[in-house]
Amino acid sequence: MSENISVLGLGLMGAALADSLLAAGHRVTVWNRTADKAAPLVAKGATRGVTPAEAVEAASLVIVCVLDYPATKDILRDASLDGRVVANLTTGRPAEAREMASWVAERGAEYLDGGIMAVPQMIATPGALILYSGSEQAYDRYEQAFAPMARPRYVGAEPGMAALLDLAMLTGMYGQIAGFLEAAALVTSAKYPLKDFTAELLVPWLNAMAAQQPVWAEKIESGDHRTEVSNLEVNRAGMENLARAFAEQGVGLDLLLPMKTIIDRRVARGLAHEGLSGLIEEL
Ligand SMILES: NC(=O)c1ccc[n+]([C@@H]2O[C@H](COP(=O)([O-])OP(=O)(O)OC[C@H]3O[C@@H](n4cnc5c(N)ncnc54)[C@H](OP(=O)(O)O)[C@@H]3O)[C@@H](O)[C@H]2O)c1
What we know:
This is NAD(P)-dependent oxidoreductase. Residues 4-151 form the 6-phosphogluconate dehydrogenase NADP-binding domain. By secondary structure, this protein is α/β, with parallel strands linked by helices. The protein contains 11 helices and 8 strands. The protein folds into 2 domains: 4-158, NAD(P)-binding Rossmann-like Domain (Rossmann fold, 3-Layer(aba) Sandwich), CATH 3.40.50.720; 165-282, N-(1-d-carboxylethyl)-l-norvaline Dehydrogenase, domain 2. The chain is elongated, with a radius of gyration of 24 Å.
């Protein structure tokens, strides 16, 4: 079903979102602070709103994707939101999303907050995901309309949940990048071909390890950190070994040392029999 949708914010991400909605046959109105960024979308059939208020007026679903939440508020302040759905796909913190939900509700609109798990080039491809939280009624109403941008996933009525899960996913990613960089520094210090190591050894190993994470999640939820895999004493010795090997190889272990500190702390508390999942209690 073709919908009237407005997209406010045509940076790299907003433009990709608007483009995907146009390609799916929706009637799209666009607005951007720097007006000429609307031109390629207008050439493809979008209507240009001269002001944010005019763009909001044109649609019952208003998608915002700008730099931050203060900019989102600036844009929407003079618009008539009453009876509309605002889907804010701007990246922010959970507390900002909750505050924005109240601000939008005071103006008579329903609110969805979104976390985009993709880069602009991935929009409208199968790998892209957008998390939504907030009004379930609004999500149900527009789930189909969201689909051309990226696979939509509703994660609950608490407006801050999409932002929190977005941050959690980025956290997992940064941890993985930290591990990769440390491994790469060690491998290159020995002049072993890094591309071979990465493709043939590291990636299959990481995939096998990642497959264990749902088991860890179960342990963490149950609070039972006993292990049949390797206890903290074994990991403490392993980390000691790692730290010494890095030092002997002349490579810094800065990105991973905090983990060693936390293992040492947990062992010092007399919990050497636990598995690594127990480290979460120290966080
Ligand atoms: N790019 C990514 O890979 C990616 C991935 C996930 C999420 N996101 C999120 O998507 C959002 C937009 O990112 P982007 O990549 O599109 O950034 P971008 O290319 O730098 O575009 C920023 C957009 O925000 C607008 N803007 C900034 N300050 C404004 C203000 N005070 N008032 C009105 N408009 C303002 C800009 O307008 P002008 O054109 O006039 O400057 C532009 O439309 C961010 O929250 C970002 O975290 C991006």
